[in-house]
Amino acid sequence: MPIERRNPEGLHATPGYHHVTVVEARRLVFLAGQCPLAPDGTIPPTLPGQTDQVVANTLTALEDAGATPDDVVRTVIYVASGERADLSAVWDRLTGSALGRAFSTASTLLGVACLGFPGQLVELDVTAALA
């Protein structure tokens, strides 16, 4: 199924994502916010470790739905920090991961005050489209 990614003239340049993602899908996949919880319920103590666990969890959830990073049409990344350096570090780690292709579509990166679990620093919201 073709996914059309566009950056219309008149909008700012992006660091890899596209402003507009267009798809005609027969099936949509909405993942719950993927948290950095390991299967045993623990959360890695560092921002890079949490980002890696979010990637692993998201890949597992996508696979369960029969989807891959290439099928992702929208992401929203939440980072519990007001520091641009932390947001940039998460973006760079995500785009350099096995999930990286997912972030070439419509993506939003937000710094937030708090996430759902004690010590949680990263969460990822993903939508995929399947033929």
TrEMBL record:
User: What cellular-component terms does GO give this entry?
Assistant: cytosol
State the Gene3D superfamilies in the record. Answer: RutC-like
- Any idea which GO molecular function terms this record carries? deaminase activity
PANTHER family annotated for this entry?
2-IMINOBUTANOATE/2-IMINOPROPANOATE DEAMINASE RIDA, PROTEIN HMF1-RELATED
Family indicated by similarity = Belongs to the RutC family.
Protein name per Swiss-Prot or TrEMBL? Enamine deaminase RidA, house cleaning of reactive enamine intermediates, YjgF/YER057c/UK114 family
Record lineage: Bacteria, Bacillati, Actinomycetota, Actinomycetes, Pseudonocardiales
